[in-house]
Amino acid sequence: MTAVVQQGYGSTDVLRVERISTPEPAEGQVLVRVHAAGLDRGVWHIMAGLPYIVRPMFGMTSPRQPVLGVDVAGVVVSLGADVTDLAVGDAVFGTADGSFAEYAVADAGKLARIPAGIGFDEAAAIPVSGLTALEAVREHGLVEPGHRVLVIGASGGVGGYAVQIAAALGAEVVGVASAAKADFVRSLGAVRCLDYATSDVTALPERYDVVIDINGRLPIGRLERILTPAGALVIVGGENGGALTGGIERQFGARIRSAFTRRRLGFFISSESRAGLHELAGLVESGAVRATVDTVRPLSAVREAIDDLLAGRIRGKAVIHVTD
Ligand SMILES: NC(=O)c1ccc[n+]([C@@H]2O[C@H](COP(=O)([O-])OP(=O)(O)OC[C@H]3O[C@@H](n4cnc5c(N)ncnc54)[C@H](OP(=O)(O)O)[C@@H]3O)[C@@H](O)[C@H]2O)c1
Predict the structure, then answer these.
(1) Is the minimum distance from the CB of 190 to ligand 1 under 6 angstroms?
(2) Centre of ligand 1 from the C-alpha of residue 158, in Å
(3) Are residue 173 and residue 255 in the same domain, yes or no?
(4) Which atom of ligand 1 is nearest to the CA of 269?
(5) What is the pLDDT of residues 56-69, one digit of tens each?
(6) Ranges for the Enoyl reductase (ER) domain (predicted)?
(7) Dihedral sign, CA of 256, 257, 263, 269?
(8) Which of 155, 239, 293, 318 would bridge with 39, disulfide CB 3.0–4.6 Å?
(9) 26 C-alpha to center of ligand 1: Å?
């Protein structure tokens, strides 16, 4: 099969489009004929091997899984042992090991049937970012109707879904993104979008029940000041925190600070589950959430898609279209 394979860690120069053996599903797994694969920041982290703190998980000098890509949408073509809840021919979306390829193996429990009314490209844009947003907004933010919610990093992969899910829950959502993407953020349901280059949200008088910080670099103390007395700060991630730790100490700092206040300050690592995918499918089918597909490129143009992501040219998600 054709796949995007990485040799070592580094820039997009480590990527090659190669012919390699088709993987075989182990117990509890299925083989998916990949039609489309989504691109998110996590893919860049695996390609770059950064921050270094993640390397024990992925491989010290090169990744144990050399095929890039996690988000997947495609058709089940074979079943490993003990898979009873999916069948050959099912059109599925979810997460896989190495989805920038014609075929990928996936744990059956990390796949669900594609929502009615959308195609493979749209479905591939949902899993990692949508699951993370769902967890941030609902499980950690505990967003309720009438809440005022601030989403920092509202125009990206996770943010595009966080804005929509919070708005669907009846919250009044304010986004933070670049000025060029303000219209996109408002189109997702935000009442307002602040430009991070010209306004410091922590210096404004507005207070929020929930702040979802997807890519802010603001100190926790300042973010705490814009919370209501029982508000919650949910840190999803953040770039440019340094090559060694990626700035994870900010997340741990929030947990420690949380012990000394009524406010809830914390972070989480998202989990990939069929239950979450079912919920996202329901939100898509009801019209509450739409897949945030921006560019769609072929497998041979993964490098260009990653360049677009790093240059901030993507509104929502980029998708790699593998086959019709
Ligand atoms: N906790 C978890 O389990 C988990 C799961 C998934 C992702 N993450 C992490 O979450 C982060 C975001 O991921 P993503 O896929 O959403 O990335 P993304 O698609 O690249 O989106 C990044 C967002 O951050 C915004 N941004 C850039 N500079 C900013 C600044 N100075 N202040 C505020 N916002 C700024 C961007 O706005 P413009 O594009 O408009 O400039 C964009 O909205 C990454 O660090 C990723 O590793 C964590």
Answers:
(1) no
(2) 7
(3) yes
(4) 3
(5) 988 999 899 999 99
(6) 10-320
(7) negative
(8) 318
(9) 34
pLDDT single digits (tens) 143-184: 999 999 999 999 999 999 999 999 999 999 999 999 999 999
Residue 177 belongs to what H/E stretch? strand 172-177
Single-letter amino acid, residue 261: T
Nearest to 316 by CA among 296, 302, 300: 296
Query: For residue 286, how many C-alpha atoms fall within 13 Å in the half-sphere facing its CB?
Result: 12
Number of structural domains (the chain) is 2
Nearest in space to 297 (alpha carbons), one of 313, 284, 285? 313
Helix (H) or strand (E) holding 5: strand 2-6
- Distance (angstroms) between ligand 1 centre and the Cα of 242 equals 15
Q: For the chain, how big is the Rg over CA atoms in Å?
A: 19
Indicate whether 68 and 152 sit together in one domain: no
Rounded CA gap, 131 and 276, in Å? 6
Say if residue 17 is in the same domain as residue 146. Answer: no
Of the candidates 133, 79, 131, which has an alpha carbon nearest to the alpha carbon of residue 107? 79
